[in-house]
Every structure is written in structure tokens, then in C-alpha cells.
């Protein structure tokens, strides 16, 4: 045998020695079976386990809505024995509010907490709450939403692919700016004021003689700081949590808008659930709303104290009638463009 041939024979023997003996063969077969069974179990449980839903929230950690939404996710998981799982993404990390509204409608996101303000351009019925001074106070808003008007808004949302599960408190919004206290509409004349994306708000500022500037929530701080806008408007907790009070210190209690918020879900996802899970979903949402409303009241007070201690200058507007009178063209334009919404507007105005 020459050397090369000898090496080939050796290699062949070595390869042959690698072949498993009979005992090893059984062991390998058992191993393969075990791996197969495991794969089947994992695959099966993944298919019966609900996919994790993604939830959108604009607010930061510690904000009443954020705490309530995390509670909602926890309750959902508990009450459904893990059939419904939700992961909340806070602080607007999944995009701006108008974008998120489209995402929940289309099913890219499943759950969200939206202000009815930015929802108005999509859901005409929901836009009615954005008429300035339509509610007497936040409690009036909840009385309205718990009645026929709330049902009409729910139906409007459902037509656009969104199911409202509960109402959160959005407090009352007032003007703030970096220039001076606002006491009468004349003080708004010429002022550049950031508004949420909704023509009603632009109309509202124009009617007061100001220059409206629609802009995403996340851009307001920098715009106030650099003078791109002189002012904005929001409730105490958002004025505080965003740090806007550091760059726009005059807060004037106009309370021109009371905008409730919805905790809502994509309609297809909702309709795919069993009646039992739909019930659990609504119960969890209601419980989270009770918590949110309680935390909201506490935070409103705490935020007011914090901004005043931090240098904000606050003034009441005891007589708001001049602001209310200035809103006449806003109502007229809205009702001319949406004649079918007149009964809803009147229903709200006539709700005690
Ligand atoms: C907050 C509200 C947010 C967002 C924000 C804004 O009060 O909770 O959803 O609408 O105002 O001004 O953009």
C-alpha cells in the first residue's frame, strides 16, 4: 500500500468509527423525538396565546394617564389569565398623536389613550367637545359622556374603526404665554399661539385676534423657548409635566376648552374577541378610568402648586363672557359645515 492509499484507508476507518453504535442510535432517536415534541408544544402554546398588543400614550412616567394605562395592562392580563396582553409605550415614543390615531384605525397599533381634540378631525361627532366653552366644567363633560351624547360619540368613533372603552379626565385647558397675563381677548391680539391639529382651535385663536400655530405636543417646549410661538394652552398637569411653565410663565385661567379623553381599541381587534373577553376588556378599562380620574384631581392640584413654586405667574379671569362672545363665529362656521351635528351640540348644551 502506498502512503496515500494508507491515509485514505485510515480516514475511511476514522469516518466509519464516527458512525453511532446501536445504543447511541436509540439515544439519538429519542433526542430527536424529544426536540420534536418540544417544538410542537412551543408552537402550539404560541398559537393559543394572544399576541401582545401595542398601546400608545403621549404622556411621561408618573403622569395620571400613564399610571392608569399601566394598571389597565396589568388588569387585562390578570382578568383574562394571560389571554389579553398589552405593552404600553409611553411618552409618545410610537409617534405623534395624529399618526397614532391612524395607526390604531388601521391596526398597526391596537390600543391608545387619545384626547378627543386631535380625534375631532377624524370623528366629526367627537369634534363637538372641541367647541370652546361647550362644557360648564369637567363634571358636566362626564355627565354628557355618560348619556346619549356619549353614545353618539361612541357610534361616530366605531364608524371610523375605533371602539371607546372608557373616558379619562383631560381637565380644563387655559392659555399660557411668555409675554403677559391674559385678561381680555384684546390681550391675545397678535400673539402666536400653538394649538393642537384641529381647525376648530385655529379658528378659536383667530377669532380672538391671535395667530394660531398647529404643532405636535413634543415640539412645543422648544418653540416656546426660542420664540417660534409666544404661548400655548393646556391643563395644569400638562403645563407642568412638559416644563412649559419654565419658558411661558403667565398662566391665565380661561378654561376655554374641556376635552375628555378616550381609552380606545382597534375595532377589528375588539370584534375578534369573545363576548367574555370584551366584557373583561371593558371592566379593566373602567377600573383604569376610575384610577385615572382620582389621580387626575390629585395631580392637577400638585402641578398647580409646583409651577407656582417654580415661578409661574397665575391670574384668574372672573368674567369670561367676552371670550365666550368672541367664539360666536367659531360655532357658526362649525354648524354651517356640519348641520347634522346641531342636535348633538344642543343636546350637550341642554344637559344639566
Ligand atoms: C394634553 C393631552 C394630550 C395632548 C396634549 C397636547 O392635555 O392629554 O393628549 O393632546 O394635551 O396639547 O397636544
Question: What is the topological layout?
Answer:
Elements: H1 3-18, H2 22-48, E1 52-56, H3 64-79, E2 85-89, H4 97-106, E3 111-115, H5 116-119, H6 124-127, H7 138-145, H8 148-159, E4 162-168, E5 172-177, E6 192-195, H9 199-207, E7 211-214, H10 220-226, E8 231-234, H11 236-241, H12 244-247, E9 250-258, E10 261-266, H13 267-271, H14 275-309, E11 313-316, H15 321-326, H16 328-337, H17 342-350
Parallel strand pairs: 1-2, 1-3, 6-7, 9-11
Antiparallel strand pairs: 3-10, 4-10, 5-8, 5-9
The structure holds beta-D-galactopyranuronic acid.
Protein described:
This protein is α/β, with parallel strands linked by helices and 352 residues long. The protein folds into 2 domains: 142 residues, 3-Layer(aba) Sandwich (D-Maltodextrin-Binding Protein, domain 2), CATH 3.40.190; 122 residues, D-Maltodextrin-Binding Protein, domain 2 (3-Layer(aba) Sandwich). Helices cover 53% and strands 17% of the residues. The chain is built from 17 helices and 11 strands. The strands form 3 sheets. A 5-stranded mixed beta sheet has the order 2-1-3-10-4, sandwiched between helices. Strand 6, helix 9 and strand 7 form a beta-alpha-beta unit. Helix 3 packs antiparallel against helix 14. The longest helix has 35 residues. The protein is globular, with a radius of gyration of 29 Å. The chain starts with a helix and ends with a helix. Beta-D-galactopyranuronic acid binds next to helix 5.
Amino acid at each position: 500500500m502506498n502512503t496515500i492509499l494508507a491515509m485514505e484507508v485510515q480516514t475511511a476507518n476514522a469516518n466509519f468509527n464516527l458512525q453511532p453504535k446501536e445504543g447511541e442510535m436509540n439515544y439519538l432517536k429519542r433526542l430527536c423525538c424529544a426536540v420534536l415534541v418540544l417544538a410542537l408544544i412551543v408552537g402550539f402554546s404560541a398559537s393559543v396565546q394572544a399576541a401582545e398588543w401595542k398601546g400608545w400614550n403621549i404622556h411621561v412616567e408618573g403622569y395620571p394617564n400613564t399610571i392608569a394605562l399601566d394598571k389597565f395592562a396589568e388588569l387585562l392580563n390578570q382578568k383574562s389569565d394571560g389571554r389579553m396582553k398589552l405593552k404600553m409605550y409611553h411618552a409618545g415614543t410610537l409617534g405623534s398623536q395624529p399618526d397614532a390615531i391612524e395607526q390604531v384605525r388601521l391596526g398597526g397599533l391596537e390600543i391608545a389613550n387619545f384626547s378627543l381634540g386631535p380625534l375631532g378631525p377624524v370623528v366629526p361627532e367627537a369634534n363637538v367637545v372641541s367647541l370652546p366653552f361647550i362644557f360648564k366644567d369637567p363634571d358636566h363633560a362626564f355627565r354628557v359622556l355618560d348619556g346619549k351624547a356619549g353614545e353618539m360619540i361612541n357610534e361616530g368613533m366605531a364608524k371610523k374603526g375605533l371602539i371607546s372603552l372608557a373616558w379619562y379626565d383631560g381637565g380644563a385647558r387655559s392659555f399660557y404665554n411668555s409675554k403677559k397675563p391674559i385678561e381680555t381677548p384684546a390681550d391675545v391680539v397678535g400673539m402666536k399661539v400653538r394649538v393642537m391639529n384641529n381647525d376648530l382651535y385655529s379658528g378659536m385663536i383667530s377669532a380672538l385676534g391671535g395667530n394660531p400655530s398647529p404643532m405636535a405636543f413634543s415640539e412645543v417646549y422648544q418653540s416656546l423657548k426660542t420664540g417660534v410661538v409666544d404661548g400655548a394652552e393646556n391643563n395644569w398637569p400638562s403645563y407642568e409635566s412638559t416644563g412649559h411653565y419654565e419658558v411661558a410663565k403667565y398662566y391665565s385661567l380661561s378654561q376655554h376648552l374641556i376635552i375628555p379623553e378616550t381609552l380606545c381599541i382597534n375595532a377589528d381587534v375588539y370584534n375578534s374577541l369573545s363576548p367574555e373577553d370584551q366584557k373583561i376588556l371593558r371592566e379593566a378599562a373602567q377600573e383604569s378610568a376610575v384610577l385615572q380620574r382620582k389621580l387626575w384631581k390629585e395631580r392637577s392640584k400638585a402641578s398647580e402648586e409646583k409651577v407656582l413654586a417654580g415661578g409661574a405667574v397665575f391670574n384668574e379671569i372672573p368674567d369670561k363672557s367676552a371670550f365666550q362672545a368672541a367664539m360666536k363665529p367659531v360655532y357658526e362656521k362649525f354648524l354651517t359645515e356640519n348641520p347634522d351635528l346641531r342636535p348633538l351640540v344642543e343636546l350637550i348644551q341642554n344637559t344639566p
